[in-house]
């Protein structure tokens, strides 16, 4: 339940259009609902603006179905991250209203809780190479499902930097930019030197042996010479999108 729905419920009680018992029924799992395998924070979006999200990598399909079904009963938006295709097919047989992105490895069901028109600007998601697309797509889909207008700019890494220079209008029209890159992780520094908006860098676990599973990119981004660049954890497209959403919600 978000702030607008809670405000509407309390207004209906105040006007006498909803009894206290009816209101309590709506709020019976406030602030959380305990289940066998989870404790669902139904009111997280009320506090933070971002709903609880299901991390699916270590969960069975049955656990994801149970948690998602409980969230749907409260008309909460549902996102499930790190869902492989086999698990997704199982879940979709039970919850066919969901949509699955194989690139992002995400399942989502998006009610009208978040409307893009209420947002103030565009989140631009950039990735250095095609190998970084899965992380970039996790960021793009998360930002979109949270209600942000999203543009994508893929395969514009520093090995062919002219590809990025040809897209400066898109860079400068963004409110927040997410940059996913592996190898040496240089691209966020380049972008950070070209724009005035916040840049969120996402190191990816892409690269040869000395990339150490993304640690080289992470250290490169943490040592960026460009001001205004923040860094999230390796492969954390979801976290980058949540940060972008928080920035985009500022007055």
TrEMBL record:
UniProt domain PurE: residue ranges: 121-250
GO molecular function annotations of the record: hydrolase activity
Biological process annotations from GO: 'de novo' IMP biosynthetic process
A Pfam match: AIRC
Domain of life of the organism encoding this protein: Bacteria
Protein name: PurE domain-containing protein
């Amino acid at each position: 339940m978000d702030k607008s729905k809670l405000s509407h419920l309390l207004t209906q009680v105040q006007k006498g259009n909803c009894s206290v018992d009816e209101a309590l029924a709506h709020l019976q799992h406030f602030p959380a609902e305990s289940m066998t395998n989870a404790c669902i924070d139904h009111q997280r979006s009320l506090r933070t603006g971002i709903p609880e999200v299901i991390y699916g990598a270590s969960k069975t399909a049955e656990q994801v179905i149970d948690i998602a079904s409980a969230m749907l009963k409260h008309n909460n938006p549902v996102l499930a991250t790190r869902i492989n295709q086999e698990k997704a097919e199982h879940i979709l047989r039970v919850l066919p209203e969901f949509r699955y992105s194989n690139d992002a490895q995400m399942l989502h069901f998006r009610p009208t809780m978040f409307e893009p028109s209420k947002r103030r600007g565009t989140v631009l998601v950039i990735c250095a190479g095609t190998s970084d697309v899965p992380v970039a797509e996790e960021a793009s889909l998360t930002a979109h499902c949270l209600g942000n207008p999203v543009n994508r700019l893929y395969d514009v890494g520093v090995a062919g930097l002219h590809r990025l220079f040809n897209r400066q209008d898109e860079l400068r029209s963004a409110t927040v930019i997410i940059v996913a890159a592996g190898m040496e992780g240089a691209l966020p520094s380049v972008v950070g030197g070209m724009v005035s908006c916040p840049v969120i860098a996402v190191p990816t676990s892409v690269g040869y042996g000395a990339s150490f599973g993304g640690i080289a990119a992470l250290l490169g981004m943490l040592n960026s010479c460009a001001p205004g660049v923040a860094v999230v954890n390796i492969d954390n497209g979801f976290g980058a999108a949540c940060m972008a959403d928080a920035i985009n919600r500022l007055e």
